[in-house]
Amino acid sequence: MHLSNALRAATALSLIMVGAAQAETITIATVNNGDMIRMQGYTDDFTAKTGHEVEWVTLEENVLRQRVTTDITTKGGQFDIMTIGMYETPIWGANDWLVPLNDLSAEYDVDDILPAMRNGLSHDGTLYAAPFYGESSMVMYRTDLMEAAGLEMPTAPTWQFIREAAAAMDNPAEDINGVCLRGKAGWGEGGAFITVTGNSFGARWFDEDWNAQFDQPEWKAALDFYVSLMNDYGPEGYATNGFNENLSLFNQGKCGMWIDATVAASFVTGDDSTVADHVGFALAPNAEGVEKRANWLWAWALAIPAGTQKEAAAKEFIEWATSKDYIELVAAKEGWANVPPGARTSLYATPEYQEVPFAQMTLDSINAADPTNPTVKPVPYVGIQFVAIPEFAGMATEVSQEFSAAYAGQQTVDEALAKAQAITNEVMEAAGYR
Amino acid sequence: MARAVTPQRKLINTGLAWAIGLLIFFPILWTILTSFKTEAQAIASPPIFLGFDWTLENYGVVMERSDYGRFLMNSIIIAGGSTILGLIVAVPAAWSMAFVPSRRTKDILLWMLSTKMLPAVGVLYPIYLLFIQLGLLDSRAGLVVVMMLINLPIIVWMLYTYFREIPAEILEAARMDGATLKEEVLYILTPMAIPGIASTMLLNFILAWNEAFWTLNLTAVNAAPLTAFIASYSSPEGLFFAKLSAASTMAIAPILILGWFSQKQLVRGLTFGAVK
After folding, report:
1. Family, per the entry (chain B) (predicted)?
2. Which H or E run includes B238?
3. N or C: which end of chain A has fewer CB atoms below 10 A?
């Protein structure tokens, strides 16, 4: 009896010691946004389940990009998990800079990840980052202003309808702009928006031989339409407005419509919005006769840099943070409207989540986005609002600066397109694509 | 002969000085005010200047989310350490250039300053790789050395200017009285140049405190100073301006207080030798 007790005690002690020996402290680099900050608040839950501690390095999006890119390309080993996007993941995966996530546990249910997200975060069929939350873009509009204008927003509007509705809702006397759209320079800001707008007019960045296509009529039509729409019904200084500026305008009741990321839906219907009770949602628009819509696809995802000494603990964290259980944890504590959206199919089958006003439109928008087939004509690249090649970020930032200069009236649309054509071809030639 | 200043002119000058001072200080004032607003009030248009419900909520959130003490301590160690190390290197260098100049002194001074003209990002990868090799990534020691090297040209230039104002005859007299080189620098030169050294120290401390390229790129958890603390509250997707303002206010408060306390010394040092 005494012996069996002693054996039990020794077994328990050894298990505790093994557990303690395996407990790690992992360092995670991440961005500052509502969902990520919320996750940091629940770190104790992860520690209680696994024994692993977590150190967070939270940085602004652009700083984070530069920081993690420097670290991964030099094998600095500063982070065990990096928060990266859909742009970086396939490129870094192809370079073997990331640990493949092909051995996640059965309980994790990798097949539950939305197909669009899984494809966008994979290279050659191998998943390299797990989506924490995903987004597309959609129309957010003021239902009260639409009603007053005697219009009804279709589920799938055209750009022509958007213009008509903007004209009807625009009211300078009341400081209401018909429509608010991004114009700010930067590949992830106005550059992303004008690229998807281009897609919805049938434009593309490159033909099959990597020749720039800014000299084609589709780009001219897209840019002319955008500039004319915003000059007539957009806010003053729209050339410098990005996501935050438009969110601020919309929340103060100064926009009839806003076309932007689906994650904005929880902000415009949240406590800080003065129009929370009067917001409707629709699919991103397209030009009449063009089958592709102006909806993008993006995910903030968690990836493990190759070479980390704490791969097992890092995988445990990723499984915890992007699991169904985590979604349920957030729902139980903060309500279904606050769970990370756009990552798992099962979320959209949850009856409670289906009651969230923007849930279905978010799912429809994500499902309508196809990164391998972003526009009407064939393209040699993957990506909707970006082109998944390393040269894109720098090149697209320059192009978007030229476009923003055209929005601000510093040059004509034709001049901006000619410069975009020259910049792009020059970069592609130097990089050996042409 | 000094020109008499009329009371009216004095009033205008004072008013003008206050107006310019307020204009320069306004962004900081606005940041401080915003830190006491709600997120909705922070983005209100037209902006609310004073008529809002003051709240400490943002400070509460920031204190709960971040380990402010750790960031503050890192800032103090990095800025203070690099300043002290910089002075240890710069005082002898400036002494030699001011009192034992060679034909190349001016060229060397200009060459030192030219290193400031190189964009930092141009040497990010070499420095990063060097830090990996030396095991200095995310270490305060590494940051102290980098900050010192970045600011060294300015420290040498400033000290050189101050030392040039000190008559060489005084040092010569000390030497004739049997003072060694060490004694000459420590007991004669340094006390005479105290205002200049103090203002150099303060300026270097402020520059190191505010530096936000190397401190963000070479740190992660252990050595991250207050610049990283601010960066963690900036977000392009979400309106967190009030919290960002609270974090910014907390980051600049120590250096602002230090500046206020030592402004007399700073002004005296910066104008040292301006009027003969």
Report:
1. Belongs to the binding-protein-dependent transport system permease family.
2. none
3. N
Selected for mutation to probe chain A from B214, B235, B240, B244 (highest A CB count within 10 Å) is B235
Q: Where in chain A is the domain with CATH 3.40.190.10?
A: 2-135+298-354, 137-295+389-430
Range of the domain at B192: 69-232
> What is the number of CB-based contacts under 8 A between chain A and chain B?
95
According to the model, what pLDDT value does residue A307 have? 87
Q: Is residue B21 situated within a structural domain?
A: no
> Which band of pLDDT confidence, cut at 50, 70 and 90, is reported for residue B270?
low
CB-closest option in B220, B228, B238 to A34: B238
- Residue A48's SS3 state is helix
CA angle A289, A293, A297 (to 5 degrees): 160
B210 burial via Cβ count (<10 Å: 0-12, 13-18, 19+): middle
pLDDT of residue A388: 94
- Structural domain includes residue B9: no
Give dist(CA A242, CA A185) in Å, integer: 8
Amino acid of residue A2: H
pLDDT digits (tens, 9 = 90+) for A143-192: 999 999 999 999 999 999 999 999 999 999 999 999 999 999 999 999 99
Among residues B207, B198, B232, B73, which one has the least CA distance to residue B151? Answer: B207
Report the CATH number at residue B193: 1.10.3720.10
Q: What is the mean pLDDT of chain B?
A: 90
Q: What is the mean pLDDT of residues B41-67?
A: 91
CB contact under 8 A, B238 and A248: no
**CATH architecture of the region A2-135+298-354:** 3-Layer(aba) Sandwich (3.40)
Nearest CA in chain A to B123: A70
Whether residue B221 and residue A27 make contact (CB cut-off 8 A), yes or no, is: yes
**B201 is a domain residue:** yes
Q: How far, in Å, CA of A348 to CA of A112, rounded?
A: 11
Amino acid present at B208 = A
| Contact yes or no for A61/A298 (Cβ under 8 A) | no
Q: How many domains does chain B have?
A: 1
> Does residue B90 fall inside a structural domain?
yes
pLDDT at A33: 86
Pick the CATH number of A137-295+389-430 from 3.40.50.1970, 3.30.70.120, 3.40.190.10, 1.10.8.420: 3.40.190.10
- A133, A111, A130, A132: which is closest to A122 by C-alpha? A130
| Residue listed under structure tokens 């004319």 | A228
Q: Which residues pair with A122 in a beta bridge?
A: A127
Predicted confidence at residue B184, as pLDDT, reads: 87
Q: What is the pLDDT of residues A192-212, one digit of tens each?
A: 999 999 999 999 999 999 999
Which pLDDT score, from 0 to 100, does residue A16 have? Answer: 47
pLDDT at A19: 47
CB contact under 8 A, B237 and A66: no
pLDDT tens track for A299-322: 999 999 998 999 999 999 999 999
In this complex, the residue of B137, B221, B235 whose CB is nearest that of residue A33 is B235
